[in-house]
């Protein structure tokens, strides 16, 4: 079913390309369609690097479009969506039934597409001896039962914290066992300076640090996490990577969704089609995450005849 939804979106983009030729109306105002106009996009701040990069490419490809990327902690992003601050949001979860009810009452059916698979990553200071951690110990950290250790999140309303609570089916955590920073980069900086800290960030933030050749990488490492649900032939500890996410052996994998609640055919549909289309999926692949659909490979075959 998802396959056909993507095809419909891509057909819409093709039609929108013809419509977008009309850059301005007679009154001098910009026309708006799926490739033209301005669009605020709420983004879970743990996903900011990959979405910002995609938005930059989209805007350069369609100069009549303007995307306002608004990074927020997950809870605040959802609240902003429900308060009509924007109608397009990128999250690592779908809205729950209570949240969806707001749009159902207004007769708005969302267009939801998975863009990629990301991961929740644990990092520590290289001065410590630990390079692996069991899931039991991760839960104990959240419960405050590992003395001398503290988990550092990008925000108290972060999707990474919500993910771990859901993963371990925890209703409460020990507030003294965690601390919140301003963003994921601040988490990495804090961990680089504190040996007793375990940082929790999105994998795409770590990849961004690698791309920038950040000096923080000399002081932090990603921890290998125990994969308790893997089969006997794959049991063990795994670092986050494109291959361990794609194979499903890294335990803390999370989907990335773009959800469009625009009541009409607007720029949100065009951006969704771009993210889930070949170019958007290539950006995901190149960034080191796992695309929702693997981009096709173009193979040129030449038929050459030789006369002896």
UniProtKB/TrEMBL annotation:
Keywords: Signal. Residues 38-278 form the PBP domain. SUPFAM superfamilies: Periplasmic binding protein-like II. Pfam families: PBP_like_2. InterPro entries: PBP_domain, Phosphate_ABC_transporter. This is Substrate-binding domain-containing protein. It comes from Sphingobacterium thalpophilum.
